[in-house]
Amino acid sequence: MADHILYSVDSGVATITLNRPDKLNAPTSAMLHDLLGAIREADADDDVRALLLTGAGRAFCAGQDLDDEAVAPGGDIGALLETRWNPIIRALRSIPKPVVVAVNGVAAGAGANLALAGDVVIAARSARFIEAFSKIGLTPDAGGSWFLPRLIGSARATALAMFAHALSADAAKEWGLIWDVADDGSLMEEAERIAEQFASGPTRAYAAIKRAVDAAATNTLDEQLDLERDLQRELGRSEDYREGVAAFVEKRPPNFTGR
Ligand code: T3D
Hints:
By secondary structure, this protein is of the alpha/beta class.
C-alpha cells in the first residue's frame, strides 16, 4: 500500500488515513484502489473490531482528483465509479464492524459522501460539507443521492446538491447529517474514544444494527419485523448476548468479545 493511504491497527481499531494533504486528499484512481484494499484488510482481520477513517492535513477529502485522466471530460467517468468509488461505499456499508469517520476538515463531492457512508460521523467544528458536483456539471455520486434524502429529507438534499453550498459542521449536526461536532483540537481524541469503545463492544450486534437500519430504507414494516426477528435469533445465540445478560445480572460491566 503506497503512503497515500495510511493504515494502522491499535486496540482493536483499524485507522485509515487519506494522506494526500497537498491536494486536500482528493483521491487518484490508485489511491481509491488502496483505500478499498485497506477496508478489506480491516474486514479480514479478526483483531479489528472497529474502523476509524480520517484525512491528513486540513481537509478530510475534496472528492475525486479532477486532474486524474480517468475523469477527463468526454470520457466514461461512470467506469471509475463502477470500479473504484462504488465498491468502497458498498464495502463501508456492508463491513460487519462499526465505521467511525472523523471529518477533520472540508469534505467535498465524493469526499463528502465517503464520510456519510460511515456509521458514526463526527466532524471538527471548522469542517464543511460541500455537495460540489453541480459546480462542475455533475450530480451527487458515491451514494450521496441515497444518503442525503434519508438523512436530511429530500427538500434539503435537493437544495444542498443544487446550490452546492458549504454546510458547516454545526449545521450538519443540527440537520441530522452527522452524529456530532468536536472542537478541532479534540476531534481525533473524541473519534478514537468512540472507535475504541466500539472495538470492545458487541460487534455482532453492531453489524446487525447496520443491516437493519439500511434495510429499513426500502423494507415494508412486515419485512422489517421479519428481519429483526432473524437478526435477534442469531444474536440470541451469541456469546456476547450470554455475557451481556450475565453482566447485567451480576451487576458488573460486560466483557464483550465480538463472538
Ligand atoms: O466518475 C467519477 O469519478 C466522477 C466522480 C466525481 C466525484 C466527485 O468528487 S466530483 C467533485 C470533485 N470535487 C470538487 O469539485 C471539489 C474541488 N475542490 C474545491 O472546490 C476546493 O478545493 C475546496 C472547496 C474543497 C477547498 O477550497 P480551498 O480554497 O480551501 O483549497 P484549494 O486551494 O481549492 O485546494 C488546495 C489544493 O488542492 C489545490 O492544489 P494547488 O493549486 O495548491 O496545487 C487544488 O487544486 C487541490 N484540489 C482540491 N480539490 C481537488 C484538488 N485537486 C484535484 N482534484 C480535486 N477534487
